[in-house]
């Protein structure tokens, strides 16, 4: 979003051109295992994934794409390494986009072969450069830095353009956060094609999520990025959840209940942490734009959460429930949770 990029259609889902940032993930099952892949895609769709990718390692995977497409609702991207022939076979079997790495798909003759197939089936291509697939000439010229990533990707974009393909998405991923950010900022200066952003090989657990949030949050706040994947060594459903939370955190998705809560301190004389966790779980599936506060003390709570639709703050023996910073109900401590959830229900059911 942000600065204008070309609008590209991926199986009925548009990216770029002012569209909202789309969430992607990738199946971990081998693609020829159609039933398992389709089950995984169903879970990803339920979690909020909008575009899904599968690996094509061999002919069995390529042929499986036709069966998978007939059983799913999401646009399907075929991920190809080393083989123009498998790329063409995946396209012929119905994928909505093909992803190729510039450093390993081959020279102009192989790219022309893929480009001709892309044009005849009217699909898109992602040219994906990463630190493991930079072409030798750019490595030798620049070393493993943002210029090498960007120039390697753009060199192959120009070859696709030469052969008449312009429904192109570009990525320049690294596992290093500063390098990822520098590469995408440089790429944004040089192209108007939509950008697929992500930190590749981010790793495991909380640190991987933090790495992705640091890089992708920086880019999104600068208006860079049209589609996003949070790459985690985990169930891909967790990638989708992390991506949704990231888009919400940077203000690009407002269709959710934003629960704010203070970290508490010595002034907090009731268990606001436990209530905050309960409220977060209670509203996590709501798509109503709303803001709810669970604050530790009545001294600062209502004022600090003045912009919230609804909030609660506590003392030792009582709690106050407030709306837009104005207290409208004082309740005994033992009744506070039940009364607050009644008000939450009322808020969520407002038309």
Characterization of the model:
The structure is a single chain. The chain is an alpha/beta fold. It has 2 domains: 8-249, Alpha-Beta Barrel (TIM Barrel); 257-348, 2-Layer Sandwich (Sulfite Reductase Hemoprotein, domain 1). It contains 12 helices and 15 strands. The chain has helices at 34-47, 59-71, 84-92, 108-121, 136-142, 146-162, 177-190, 205-221, 236-249, 272-283, 301-304, 333-348, and strands spanning 8-10, 13-15, 22-26, 51-56, 76-80, 97-100, 124-130, 168-173, 196-197, 227-228, 257-261, 290-295, 310-314, 318-323, 326-332. The strands form 3 sheets. It has an 8-stranded parallel β-sheet. A 5-stranded mixed β-sheet has the order 11-12-13-14-15. Strands 1-2 form a two-stranded antiparallel ribbon. A hairpin with a 2-residue loop joins β14 (318-323) and β15 (326-332). The longest helix is centred in the middle third of the chain and has 17 residues, at 146-162. The radius of gyration is 24 Å and the shape is elongated. The two termini are 29 Å apart.
Overall geometric form:
elongated
Secondary-structure element sequence? EEEHEHEHEHEHHEHEHEHEHEHEEEH
- Terminus-to-terminus distance: 29 Å
Structural class: alpha/beta
Widest sheet: strand ordering? 8-7-6-5-4-3-10-9
- Oligomeric state of the chains present here: single chain
The portion of residues assigned to helices is: 40-55%
Mean pLDDT: 90
CATH class of the largest domain: Alpha Beta
Low-confidence stretches: none
Instruction: Label the CATH architecture of the largest domain.
Output: Alpha-Beta Barrel
Number of helices: 12
Radius of gyration: 24 Å
Using the coordinates shown, work out and report the CATH topology of the largest domain: TIM Barrel
Per DSSP E runs of 2 or more residues, the count of β-strands stands at: 15
Q: What summary fits the major beta sheet? A: 8 strands, parallel
Q: How many discrete structural domains?
A: 2
CATH H-level superfamily of the largest domain: Dihydropteroate synthase-like
Strand content: 15-25%
């Amino acid at each position: 979003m942000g600065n204008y990029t070309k609008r590209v259609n991926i199986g009925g889902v548009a990216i770029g051109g002012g569209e909202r940032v789309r969430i992607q993930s990738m199946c971990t099952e081998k693609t020829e295992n159609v039933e398992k892949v389709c089950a995984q895609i169903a879970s990803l769709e339920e979690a909020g994934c909008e575009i899904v990718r599968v690996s094509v390692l061999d002919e069995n995977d390529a042929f499986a794409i036709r069966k998978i497409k007939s059983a799913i609702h999401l646009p399907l991207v075929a991920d190809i390494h080393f083989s123009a022939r498998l790329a063409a076979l995946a396209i012929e079997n119905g994928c909505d986009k093909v992803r190729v790495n510039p450093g390993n798909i081959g020279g102009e003759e192989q790219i022309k072969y893929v480009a001709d197939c892309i044009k005849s089936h009217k699909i898109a291509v992602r040219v994906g450069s990463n630190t493991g697939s930079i072409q030798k000439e750019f490595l030798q010229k620049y070393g493993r830095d943002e210029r090498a990533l960007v120039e390697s990707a753009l060199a192959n974009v120009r070859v696709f353009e030469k052969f008449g393909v312009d429904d192109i998405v570009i990525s320049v991923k690294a596992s290093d956060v500063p390098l990822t950010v520098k590469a995408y900022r440089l790429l944004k200066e040089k192209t108007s094609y939509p950008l697929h952003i992500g930190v590749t090989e981010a790793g495991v657990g909380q640190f991987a999520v933090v790495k992705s949030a640091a890089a992708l949050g920086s880019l999104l706040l600068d208006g860079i990025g049209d589609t996003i994947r949070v790459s985690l060594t985990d169930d891909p459903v967790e990638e989708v959840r992390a991506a949704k939370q990231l888009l919400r955190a940077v203000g690009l998705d407002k269709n959710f209940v934003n629960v704010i809560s203070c970290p508490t301190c010595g002034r907090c004389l009731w268990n606001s942490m436990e209530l905050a966790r309960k409220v977060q779980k209670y509203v996590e599936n709501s798509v109503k734009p709303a803001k709810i506060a669970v604050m530790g003390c009545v001294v600062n709570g209502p004022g600090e959460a003045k912009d919230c639709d609804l909030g609660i703050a506590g003392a030792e023996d009582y709690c106050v429930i407030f709306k837009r910073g104005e207290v409208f109900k004082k309740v005994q401590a033992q009744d506070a949770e039940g009364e607050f959830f009644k008000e939450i229900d009322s808020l969520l059911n407002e038309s």
